[in-house]
Each structure stands twice: as structure tokens, then as C-alpha cells.
Amino acid sequence: MKDILDLVVAKGLQYYTFHPDGSGCLNWQLTLLSNFVAPGWLSEEDVANARVQVSEYAKTAKEAVPWPPVQGKFYTPPQ
After folding, report:
1. Which residue has the higher pLDDT, 55 or 66?
2. Around Cβ 27, how many Cβ atoms within 10 Å?
3. The pLDDT of residue 22
4. For residues 65 and 2, what is the distance between their CA atoms, to the nearest angstrom?
5. Once rounded to an integer, what is the mean pLDDT over residues 55-62?
6. Closest Cα to residue 36, out of 14, 15, 8, 69?
7. What is the rounded end-to-end Cα distance, in angstroms, of the chain?
8. What distance in Å separates the CA atoms of residue 52 and residue 75, rounded to the nearest whole number?
């Protein structure tokens, strides 16, 4: 858990604002998974497969899982 938290902080992923419509968490989660590739926790193929699985699930749960993911915005941390 500490490694994940350290990665989030190092990449500034905690500085994220949801889309004005109130969504964006799936985009954040997929971004987090993509950041797991560099340290070797996941492969690029794992991340691509996760995206495919979520997109397939979204076809049956349209209201619960927006696809493509609604994008919030990463912002510069306050100084």
C-alpha cells in the first residue's frame, strides 16, 4: 500500500478534479493502472485488457459505467 501511495504522490495523481458533470473516477483509476507499468506491477497488456473488460461491462451497465470514461482534470498542486 505504501508503494502505491508513494506513486500517487510522486506522480501528483491526488491533484484531480472531477468533470463538472460529477464524473471522472474511472478515468483516474485507469490512469493509476497505467502508472503501474513503469515499476513492473502490471504489463501494458494487463492495462489494455482492463480497458477492454471495462468497456465490455459498460455495454451492459451504461448508466453505471460511462464509456469512454469521462475525463476530469489533473491540476498543478497549490504552492
Report:
1. 55
2. 20
3. 77
4. 29
5. 93
6. 8
7. 27
8. 27
Q: Is 18 helix (H, G, I), strand (E, B) or coil?
A: coil
Maximum separation of any 2 CA atoms in the chain, in Å: 43
Find where cell 500517487 sits.
Answer: 8
Q: Which three cell numbers stand for residue 5?
A: 501511495
Cell readout for 38 is: 513503469
Tell me the three cell numbers of residue 60: 451492459
Q: Of 20, 53, 52, 46, whose CA–CA distance to 32 is shortest?
A: 46
CA–CA gap between residue 59 and residue 53 (Å, rounded):
10
Three-state SS at 11: helix
The residues, ordered by sequence, that sit 6+ positions from 3 with a Cβ below 8 Å of its Cβ are: 39
Phi, psi of 17 (to 5 degrees): -115, 135
The pLDDT assigned to 63 comes to: 83
**Partners of 17 in the beta sheet?**
73
